[in-house]
């Protein structure tokens, strides 16, 4: 859709946001999450505490449902080991405690968490972007899916134009000779 993922410089999980970046694109910024050996158990405990202390995730402050919302967002983005690797490359997942497969298994376990206000706010932003920028999304999708064909076509056209220009200059030079 043309939404780039970036890592924020803050570690507060409630500071997830989407904003318009340039004319065609938007940016979804997420705080980085350290995935080490001890971190998964802490996240499980924090999510359990939120589940235990919060009865309705939409009637509390955003901070009171931040852990569950953040984990749900990451679960939504991670379906394969390559997705985990991409999140590591973007700086959203940090640390070398767990392998990509272990990290994937860890996030799959959180798919049953409830949605919180942070999650709803981000999805509202994504949906608003999708509705308001549908033409740019279509253009981006077309270019993304056909980028090799487009580059090949432009390369062939530039070679043909170069050959035709050379032939034209040779013909012109041949006519000017006495």
Produce a short descriptive summary.
By secondary structure, the protein is mainly α. Helices cover 58% and strands 10% of the residues.
Give the topology string: H per helix, E per strand: EEEEHHHEHHHH
How many separate helices? 7
Strand arrangement, largest sheet? 1-3-2
Radius of gyration: 24 Å
Fraction in beta strands? 5-15%
- State the total count of DSSP E strands: 5
Low-confidence stretches: none
Category by helix and strand content? mainly alpha
Give the overall shape, derived from the CA principal axes. elongated
State the end-to-end distance: 62 Å
Task: List the keywords.
single chain, mainly alpha, 2 domains, 3-stranded mixed beta sheet, 7 helices, 58% helix
Q: How would you describe this protein?
A:
By secondary structure, this protein is mainly alpha-helical. The chain has 2 domains: 3-141, no CATH class; 147-176. It has 7 helices and 5 strands, in the order ββββαααβαααα. Strands 1-3-2 form a 3-stranded mixed beta sheet, covered by helices on one side. Strand 2 (17-20) and strand 3 form a beta hairpin. The radius of gyration is 24 Å and the shape is elongated. The N and C termini lie far apart (62 Å). The mean pLDDT is 77.
């Amino acid at each position: 859709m043309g939404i780039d993922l970036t890592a924020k410089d803050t570690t507060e999980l409630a500071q997830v946001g989407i904003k318009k970046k340039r004319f065609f694109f938007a940016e979804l910024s997420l705080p980085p999450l350290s995935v080490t050996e001890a971190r998964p158990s802490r996240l499980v405990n924090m999510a359990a505490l939120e589940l235990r202390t919060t009865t309705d995730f939409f009637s509390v402050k955003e901070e009171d449902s931040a852990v569950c919302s953040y984990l749900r967002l990451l679960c939504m983005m991670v379906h394969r080991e390559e997705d985990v690797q991409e999140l590591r490359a973007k700086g959203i997942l940090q640390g070398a405690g767990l392998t990509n497969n272990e990290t994937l298994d860890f996030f799959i376990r959180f798919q049953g968490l409830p949605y919180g206000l942070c999650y709803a706010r981000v999805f509202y932003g994504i949906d608003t972007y999708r509705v308001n920028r549908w033409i740019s999304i279509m253009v981006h999708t077309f270019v993304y899916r056909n980028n090799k064909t487009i580059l090949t076509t432009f390369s062939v056209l530039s070679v043909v134009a170069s050959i035709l220009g050379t032939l034209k200059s040779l013909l012109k030079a041949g006519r000017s000779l006495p």
